[in-house]
Amino acid sequence: MFKALIFTAIVGIAFASPLSPKLLKAIGGGSGADKVVPKVVDVVVPHVNNDDVHAETVNRVDDVRADGFSAVLETSNHISESRNGDVHGNIHGDYGWISPDGEHIQLTYVADENGYQPKGVHLPTSPPIPAAIQRSLEWIAAHPPAPESHEDEEEE
User: Fold this and answer.
1) SS3 label, residue 133
2) What is the pLDDT of residues 70-125, one digit of tens each?
3) Which domain holds residue 57?
4) Which of 10, 42, 55, 117 could form a disulfide with 77 if both were Cys (CB 3.0 to 4.6 A apart)?
């Protein structure tokens, strides 16, 4: 019974595949012109460090209070996180890990009414504002537009 169930599942998956008509045509034979050869595609698979697979929690502390919370997590593969939150929903925290290149990555963040604001030397930064645009912004700030008059409203 179990073998029949497995066979049915495999056949169902094969027929549900968007490639199945082409593959069935290729497997079924026929003239060389109607055969479809599946394209070989290189797939990059991220390297998983053996330590990551077997990582264990070294330290975990969760403290929930009426005025907020704090949490700390450390694993045996050098991943760490700590965060503190208040009753208003503001959270301050940091997390870090060792990259596959062996570099220590550390980020700090604030999540509050202004959104999520991460900081870290590894985060990309925006390019500087070009000098011409900076001068234009300064000129606009120094020369605000005149207030509009509402003479039409006063006449009524």
Assistant:
1) helix
2) 999 999 989 999 999 999 999 999 999 998 888 999 999 999 999 999 999 988 88
3) 52-141
4) 55
Q: Is residue 115 part of a domain?
A: yes
* Number of domains present in the structure of the chain: 1
End-to-end alpha carbon distance in the chain: 90
Average pLDDT of every residue of the chain: 79
Whether this prediction's pTM lies above 0.70 is answered by no
Cα dist. 7→15, 23, 122, 142, 152 in Å? 12, 18, 50, 77, 83
* Burial of 52 per CB tally in 10 Å (0-12, 13-18, 19+): middle
The verdict on residue 21 lying in a domain is no
Outline where DSSP puts E strands in 3-151: 57-65, 68-75, 80-86, 91-98, 104-112, 115-119
The answer to whether position 147 is within a domain reads no
**pLDDT of the residue at 111:** 95
